[in-house]
């Protein structure tokens, strides 16, 4: 029993020593806990400052990002429209410079009156005219063929001109419309080489519209297209040849697929032609360029063939030309 007692005393002494060591640490805990609680409180209390940051949702400032997309969508539209706009920049210069001289010209009103038939108009019957064509481009020359097919039933008409050559795409112009007391009244004109473009004559609304998205043009009395004008001029002259001597001027609004403007033809007089189809007398009319990019049109109409076109020469500003000369005729 003696050895057990000293062990018990030693155990009690160790426990007492541990209590003395642990007591200072336990007494130090409250001061440490105090600051911890104060830190937590300040952290929680600092949260209300967050509402002050709520105005920062510069989401409204991000509103500009909502207004940006429309401009972004518009940009492609503007870039896509650049080629037409570039062309339109030049055209207003033409159209702005063109109407002014016409309106201010002393003979403008007279020309418009002369463009309207003042006597009977005789539209030629259905006919097929074949031509030999010489095309000059950049100093080179090549041969082609063309066919002008005109049909009419007294109320409506259709005209088609096809030009074809071995090394060139076939080009086709097509005009349809009505026949009135004033002659041809086109309703639609198309021009096709690689792709087709068209002009529409809206007589109810008094305008000419274009498939090329060019601005509409006002539709004037007696308006023609670039194909029907060849037949209409012959119909006017056939109806009253004495009223159009050499020097007379005939003005007709003539529409292509991008614009409609007055074409003024001057009667040059009668010439003797040697054509592939034979020798004959023809009345020459000339439309001279009035703008930088205008073409010169020379037209010969044969009185002995109901004033149909027996020769047509178109000359570009750069000198390129197309000269088609009558070679044969098919009636019907």
Describe the protein's architecture and organization.
- Residues 6-114 have low confidence and may be disordered.
- The protein has a 15-stranded mixed beta sheet with strand order 8-7-6-5-4-3-2-1-15-14-13-12-11-10-9.
- Helix content is 33%, strand content 39%.
- The longest helix has 43 residues, at 4-46.
- It is built from seven helices and 15 strands.
- It is α+β, with helices and mostly antiparallel strands and 332 residues long.
- Strand 5 (183-192) and strand 6 form a beta hairpin.
- It has a domain at 108-331: outer membrane lipoprotein receptor (LolB), chain A (Clam), CATH 2.50.20.
Report the strand count.
Answer: 15
Report the β-strand fraction as a percent range: 35-45%
Number of helices: 7
Regions with pLDDT < 50 over 5+ consecutive residues? 6-114
Oligomeric state: single chain
Return Rg in Å.
45 Å
* CATH fold call of the domain at 108-331: outer membrane lipoprotein receptor (LolB), chain A
Described by strand count, sense and barrel closure, the largest sheet is: 15 strands, mixed
Overall geometric form: globular
The SSE order reads: HHHHHHEEEEEEEEEHEEEEEE
Distance between the termini: 152 Å
Quick structural gist:
The protein is an alpha+beta fold.
Task: Compile the SSE list and pairings.
Layout: H1 4-46, H2 49-53, H3 63-80, H4 82-97, H5 99-104, H6 108-115, E1 127-137, E2 140-152, E3 156-165, E4 168-180, E5 183-192, E6 196-202, E7 207-210, E8 217-218, E9 224-225, H7 228-239, E10 249-255, E11 260-275, E12 278-287, E13 296-302, E14 308-315, E15 321-331
Parallel strand pairs: 9-10
Antiparallel strand pairs: 1-2, 1-15, 2-3, 3-4, 4-5, 5-6, 6-7, 7-8, 10-11, 11-12, 12-13, 13-14, 14-15
């Amino acid at each position: 029993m003696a050895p057990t007692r000293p062990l018990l005393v030693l155990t009690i002494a160790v426990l007492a020593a541990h209590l003395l060591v642990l007591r200072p640490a336990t007494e130090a805990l409250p001061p440490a806990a105090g600051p911890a609680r104060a830190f937590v409180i300040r952290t929680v209390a600092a949260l209300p400052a967050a509402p002050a940051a709520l105005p920062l949702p510069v989401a409204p400032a991000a509103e500009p990002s909502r207004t940006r997309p429309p401009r972004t969508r518009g940009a492609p539209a503007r870039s896509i429209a650049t080629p037409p706009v570039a062309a339109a920049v030049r055209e207003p210069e033409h159209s702005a410079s063109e109407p002014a001289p016409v309106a201010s010209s002393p003979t403008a009103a007279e020309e418009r009156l002369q463009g309207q038939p003042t006597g009977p108009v005789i539209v030629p019957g259905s006919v097929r005219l074949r031509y030999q064509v010489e095309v000059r481009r950049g100093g080179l020359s090549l041969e082609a063929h063309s066919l002008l097919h005109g049909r009419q039933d007294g109320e409506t008409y259709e005209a088609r001109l096809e030009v074809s050559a071995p090394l060139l795409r076939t080009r086709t112009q097509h005009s349809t419309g009505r026949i009135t007391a004033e002659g041809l009244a086109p309703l639609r004109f198309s021009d096709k080489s690689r792709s087709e473009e068209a002009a529409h004559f809206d007589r109810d609304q008094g305008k000419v519209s274009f498939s090329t998205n060019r601005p509409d043009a006002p539709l004037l009395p007696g308006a023609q297209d670039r194909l029907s004008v060849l037949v209409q001029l012959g119909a006017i002259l056939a109806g009253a040849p004495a009223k159009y001597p050499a020097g007379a001027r005939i003005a007709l609004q003539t529409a292509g697929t991008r614009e409609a403007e007055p074409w003024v033809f001057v009667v040059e007089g009668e010439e003797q032609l040697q054509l592939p189809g034979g020798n004959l007398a023809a009345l020459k009319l000339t439309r001279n360029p009035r703008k930088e990019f205008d073409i010169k049109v020379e037209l010969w109409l044969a009185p002995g063939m109901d004033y149909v076109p027996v020769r047509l020469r178109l000359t570009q500003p750069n000198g390129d030309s197309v000269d088609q000369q009558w070679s044969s005729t098919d009636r019907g």
